[in-house]
Design goal:
The structure is a single chain. Helix 1 packs antiparallel against helix 5 and helix 3 runs antiparallel to helix 4. A hairpin with a 4-residue loop joins strand 4 and strand 5. The radius of gyration is 23 Å and the shape is elongated. The chain folds into two domains: 91 residues, no CATH class; 110 residues, no CATH class. The N terminus and C terminus are likely disordered. With 252 residues, it is an alpha+beta fold. The N and C termini lie close together (11 Å). It is 26% helix and 34% strand.
Length: 252
């Protein structure tokens, strides 16, 4: 009996496949518009163990787009630069049931469009830390040894901070089009990256102040991690396991 139950459990988990939308983008939608797929679009399907979608929210323009079949990992990505420009991208995947994307994704979109991120206000707070609008010379930066080095004219100061290990992984001169800040937060890795055009702007004090600005604007929590959870819908395997354990207990 137990062998049969285990066989059925493993067969169900290994053999289960979804019909997932792939290679399709919809939008732009205004924040006040509900997510929908226009009639006749996104007809292509693939059989897969999980379905994926990427949603890109542009808070400076108050619009969002949805793309299916990309980024087979759960992650959030925040990107801030001049103009001002503030995007928040969600990589979402699920493997729970047929059409598992639509309802949870709609709920996540509803939560995100209700956020009142002000791109102009947030970038104005970052500008004194990361941008020198009148820059006419090569910038000086700290390297990994915290020594001062002079960069070339097409480089900026860069710093990459591992928010799980709480450690600076890279610091020094870097090729970049200009000042910007971005956060990548996935299940197994989270980083805050800074590129700045002011002298010596890639120090620990600047890092701490930028983390504080992101947290005070509810872009991240106090540890620099995403506050928008639920990017991944867990598979049904744990539920099946609980059911199996209950059956084993009752069997004895």
């Amino acid at each position: 009996m137990l062998v049969l139950l285990l066989s059925l459990l493993l067969t169900a988990e290994i053999g289960y496949a979804l019909q997932c939308i792939t290679n399709c983008s919809v939008g732009e939608f205004r924040f006040e518009e509900p997510f929908r797929i226009p009639d006749g679009e996104c007809q292509q399907r693939i059989e897969a163990s999980d379905c994926t979608a990427r949603v890109d929210f542009k808070y400076h323009d108050q619009v969002y787009t949805v793309e299916f079949g990309k980024n087979r990992s759960s992650a959030d990505f925040i990107y801030i630069t001049a103009s001002p420009y503030l995007s928040y991208t969600i990589n979402y995947y699920c493997s729970k049931a047929t059409n598992c994307v639509f309802s949870p994704l709609q709920k996540r979109i509803n939560k995100m469009v209700r956020r009142t991120y002000n791109a102009t206000h947030i970038y104005a707070q970052l500008v004194p830390l990361i941008e020198n609008p009148s820059r006419t010379h090569a910038v000086k930066c700290y390297n990994m040894k915290k020594e001062i080095v002079k960069c070339s004219h097409d480089q900026v100061c860069g710093l990459s901070y591992d928010q799980q290990a709480k450690d600076v992984r890279a610091r020094g001169c870097q090729l970049s089009p200009g000042a910007r800040v971005f956060v990548y937060d996935a299940d197994y890795y989270s980083a805050l990256h800074i590129e700045c055009t002011r002298n010596l702007c890639n120090d620990d004090a600047t890092l701490a102040r930028i983390k504080s600005i992101l947290a005070s604007n509810n872009l991240t929590d106090a540890n620099g991690r995403r506050i928008a959870v639920g990017t991944k819908e867990m598979a049904s395997f744990p539920l099946l396991t609980v059911a199996l354990i209950s059956t084993i207990i009752s069997y004895f």
